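Exercise: predict the fold of this chain.
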Amino acid sequence: MWDTAHAQDAFMSHSFQHILIAPDKFKHCLTSMEVADAVARGVWKSQCGATWERSAIADGGEGFSEIIGNALCMTKVTARARDALGRQIYADYRCGYVEREVLAVMEMSATAGLWQIQSDERDPLHSSTYGVGEMIRSAVNSRGAKRVLLGIGGSATNDGGAGLAAALGCRFLDAEGNELAADPASLHGKLAVIDRSEMIDLPPIEVACDVENPLLGTTGATAIFGSQKGLSPEQAVIAEAVLARIVELLDAEDLALRPGAGAAGGLGFGLMAFCGGELKPGFGLVAETLGLKEKLSHCDLVITGEGSVDAQSLHGKAPVGLARMARAAGKPVWMICGRADKEFFEEGSPFDRVFVLLDREPDIPKAMATAGELVVEEIFEALESRETPSGSAARP
């Protein structure tokens, strides 16, 4: 643990009465609710006398639909779909009445997520977002959705939303009118016509997006995120050419330049161009839905968390968004994370105290295996060392 430049002595001696526990997930380790539960156990174990409230958070990545669905008491729906490589899977999303209309909440990672693809299977040129379109079709045709919230992030794809569009009725044709599979390898050098005449009618789609990259160029989807999905430099040239061809045929250069168009391998662009989707900051949608502003008004300490914290966290990540909200409301913020780039915290950090699990347990596999208990002990020791009121909190 260390205190950042923002920490004030008053925060260190003040006895907290009510704590808002609002972490994001520790990727490949703990869900956001598991992190929240571990923090709550640490608060209870400290016998510090504080009450607490758990409110797991997310941006547009994994956990988005579950967190919003639970907050709105929505029903879990399971639909047949395809993963990024075209294999049949079952994907969950949430559905329910909100303001007298059916709202569907889903995340692209449920079908086209990188987490579902083994490292030796990654093949973005033969991968697509078809399964995302299948989820939307299910929500519209089977559930009568009048509005869709879709979180995008953590994709295994780089298809610009072509697969999504194909699942919704769009046809990708060569010069002879033959239909092409909607993946970059099939479209490269052959795509001549994009026929949207048979696409299904779609309700408004709001897209939770946690990056600001455009679709093309040196800061675009392929250049920035392609290698982590398995694209070699030679394959990246092909993927970029396919995205540029789609933009050309749709006459959508303006959309390709918009912040977030490059999110999820260009799915941000595809949702705007094919579906009329509106990109919004992922954390902003979550904060509004969960009523975080109101929750902040009733607490005097915020404890948030994320698996890894570095300079990238400044660009739309949920814990930083929450910390900024808390600071504007005059509330101290603690961050607990698996690993951290300490240079990130030297200047301009939004957090007052930072707890890093790898400082406590440097063996990475062991730290991941025991992350929940490490969180408990970090929070317990931090609160136990403080001046605290008499009495104890209720058991979580």
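Check your answer against the key: Residues 233-250 form the longest helix (18 residues).
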